[in-house]
Amino acid sequence: MDREKREQLIEALNGLSAEDEAAVLANARNAVSLLAESGLDWADVIIQVARPEGTFSADFDHGAIDIDSDDDDSPTPLRLGDADVGRVLHALRARDDLSPETRAELDDFAGELAAGRLDSGDRAYVLALAGRLGVGRP
Length: 138
Description:
The protein has helices spanning 3-14, 21-37, 42-45, 52-55, 82-93, 100-114, 120-133. With 138 residues, it is an all-alpha fold.
């Protein structure tokens, strides 16, 4: 879903609280139509907000997760399937506040995931970044 459609979807969802029932229905249908046009369903756009204590083990010297794995006692992020990692990548890439370098990295990861070649280190990086930025995961 591109940024314009995303903003239209947000506007449609905000319109669900309108006083006029016809406007509510029109906004609901618009939201469903925007999803269909983008080839998405609700599971693709509604991502549960991650709770650090449920997603990653605490690590006293590196915050919520240590992706370096140099100390042999680094926590391991929860393993997610390709579809779940794809949703997290989609949510990260939808952010407006990413640096061009980070965005390019995430685009590369999405390509690797689509080709079935995203390795465990890159998966850990994606999940760690999502946790640090407060981006939800499935």
